[in-house]
Amino acid sequence: MNKLSILLILLILYGCSGQKLDGSVSNSISYAPGKFCSEKLSGVLDKKDVKTIPLSSSNVKESGQVSADKYVGYAFQGKAGQRISYRTNDNICVSVFTPKNEVLKGVDLDTDGQYILQVAVPKGSTSFNLEMSLGIGTLSQNQSVQSQPSFDIIGNWEGSFGLNSKENSTISITKQSGKSFQGILYTVGNKGGKFSIAIEGEIKSESRETIIQEFEILSKPANESWFLGVNKGNFSSDYRQLSGTGQDPHGNRYDWAFYKK
Questions:
Q1: Whole-model pTM?
Q2: What value, to the nearest 5°, has the Cα angle with vertex 88 and ends 85 and 91?
Q3: What is the Cα–Cα distance from 155 to 184, expressed in whole angstroms?
Q4: Which pLDDT score is estimated for 24?
Q5: Measured between alpha carbons, how far is 199 from 181 in angstroms, rounded to an integer?
Q6: Which of 26, 87, 107, 200 has the smallest set of CB atoms within 10 Å of its CB?
Q7: What is residue 41's DSSP assignment?
Q8: How much of the chain exceeds pLDDT 90, in percent?
Q9: DSSP three-state, residue 247
Q10: Residue 96 · residue 118 · CB < 8 Å
Q11: How far apart are CA 141 and CA 98, in angstroms?
Q12: Dist CA 16 CA 31 (whole Å)
């Protein structure tokens, strides 16, 4: 029995028991995320519904039909330090499973081997179009020390975010490597509920432009929803202020602004 067969059997077994295939989204910094799937998935990814694709830095386009009881998968070979990216405008749930049959957290691959990108929906059925690519992770451990910037953005940034213009939001940047960074956005929804959103960003040091991707909802109130957005803005020349605009998958636009404490 080959490795793919073993992995798919594990996926099917875990799917039937309600484990692993839980709808967690590992979105990428491709700046066009699909809809975050907060409902638990209960379907199955069958071996015959997994297609092997030669994923590389060039976009691979796939389309198909997915339903609540029948998922679609794409198997590809990856190496530690590479970054998986996808683009879709459809309301689907996307998860990436590692060679160890675990949901990939973040977007950077952590080991060599065969990965499976799963497309699912929590209910009903839908058609989808999906673009995928595999590149070098900007947070790779192999990144040259010479690429490290002279500015330091790690720390807490206070300010306002979204339609709620009050200064009751915080961006906590916890990791910076080269021109890339990771952290958590703490903000308040329209009904006053508190949200925690995992983010990743990249900076163009020449222009100080940045794109911040929301890729996972860490916590949210039960009575409010959140759609992962893409935020584009600029740092000030002293890297003490950050402001810009954002857009969620439904086309809703909003402003945001922060300053470093």
A1: 0.47
A2: 125
A3: 11
A4: 32
A5: 8
A6: 87
A7: P
A8: 39
A9: strand
A10: yes
A11: 19
A12: 33
Give the Cα separation of 150 and 205 in Å (integer): 10
Q: At which residue do the structure tokens 């940045």 appear? A: 210
Alpha-carbon span 244 to 170, nearest angstrom: 15
Strands 113-120 and 50-52: unpaired
pLDDT of 256 = 93
- Residue 207, both tokens: 């222009």
Give the pair of three-digit tokens for residue 140: 């790779």
Name which of 94, 30, 108, 35 is nearest 64 in CA terms: 94
Q: Which residue has the tokens 């021109």?
A: 179
Residue 49 has pLDDT above 90, yes or no: yes
User: Are 93 and 23 spatial neighbours (Cβ–Cβ below 8 Å)?
Assistant: yes
Q: Residues 157-214: pLDDT tens digits? A: 999 998 665 678 999 999 988 788 999 999 988 888 899 999 999 887 678 899 999 9
Structure tokens at 239: 């890297």
CB 103 within 8 A of CB 34: no
Q: What is the separation, in whole angstroms, between the first and last Cα of the chain?
A: 57
Token pair belonging to 212: 């911040």
Which helix (H) or strand (E) segment holds residue 7: the answer is helix 3-16
Supply the DSSP string of 150-178, one letter for each residue: S----EEEEEEETTEEEEEEEEEEEEEET
